[in-house]
Amino acid sequence: MTALEELHRKAREIFDRALEACDIPQAFDRHLHFEGKTLVRHPSPRLPSISLPLDGYKDFFVIAFGKAALTMLDALLARLPPKTHLRGVCSAPDIPKKRNRHIRYFAGGHPLPNDDSFAAARAVLALLKHARKNTFIFFLISGGGSAMLELPRDRKISLDDTIAFHETLVASGATITEINTVRKYFSAVKGGRLALAAPTAEKLSLLLADVPLKDLAAVASSPTLPDYSTLAECQEILERFDLLEKFPPAIREYFEKLQQNERSQQEQQSSVAAFHNAQFDTLLSNHDFVNAARDHAQSLGYKVVIDNTCDDWDYAEAAKYLLARFHELRREHLRLCLLSSGEVTVNLSKSPGCGGRNQQFVLQAALDLARYEGEPLAVLSAGSDGIDGNSPAAGAIADTTTIARARSYNFDPEATLARFDACTLFTSLGDSIVTGPTGNNLRDLRILIAG
Fold it and tell me: Among 94, 131, 396, 418, which one is most buried in terms of CB atoms within 10 A?
């Protein structure tokens, strides 16, 4: 095995071990357990321990949505006390073959909503109408939920227009926090509105955070957390990215009318007041993911540095920054592993090729690595959900020979980058990272490795 092949193997091993360490059932057990009919949440640095006796509740609802919805739902169902009277809704990437007869399952769309996204949202709102003081609701929320559970506040807006709305936001170059701020003012199930739909019920939201921990309200566009964003912030984002002109006429008209009144501010205040009977906990986050990668890289003998500075940066700027840091650190450490977690942004053309932000980042990095031919350097970037953009890959890996090998296969790397078609190139080279959907969603991991 050559030095570069060994680097490929080590980088992939670090990614895979980090993903394995973020096991959702194990995370459930670290955070909570049942003592008879009492739910006990274990203490953490951010949250105190709580004990919630459940024998005083008549009905139990579970609402699960997002890329990890099935994994989270199965983990909860396996741990509930026997004879728990349960009803629920689950919107996940796929409908499982083995289903709980008390749960309605939907195959919600991602990154764009579909018919089931609308149907699931209607089913959730209909179920929550039956919630009372003696109802306990489990909300199991993970990234991707913004598309998998969706319904416009203006019910006259069609699914096609809603798809165009989501598509425009995703391709705008805005950060996930900015995108979700706009979504909150559009949607009937975001910005705390699921909690408002069951104001007197006891609620526990369990999150898989695909956003920075300082911005938990961005997970699935904050369906059960208080929304502290303002209409003025939404307006500023719409203007800065020139979004109104890009939206379908029905959605442009909706936002223009919204800007003409202050009803949203009043809703915001009532939303905050409705959370006195709500509990929240983060089962797993991107911090768990990158820390697990750090631990395994250290076990392999690498000097490990974590730098998340470029979270939510444009992919090209992020690549430039991380590679400069990487080369600087290499002067002091022969065996080096620079880790960076979070996400980078891309601004898509109207007709992109096959790819995603991770593969775009790696191809940009490969252009830099080509200057160091003969040195043992590699860059991997992949998503914890196993899906990168519109491609079948989770991401890709590149080294100092990637550009030369691509040109030998008659690829033009710069043109491929401009077409957002990196998956085609990496697949041809055998350097795509393919995991399939993982049932998890803890953002992305970038691994720059030397030695």
Answer: 396
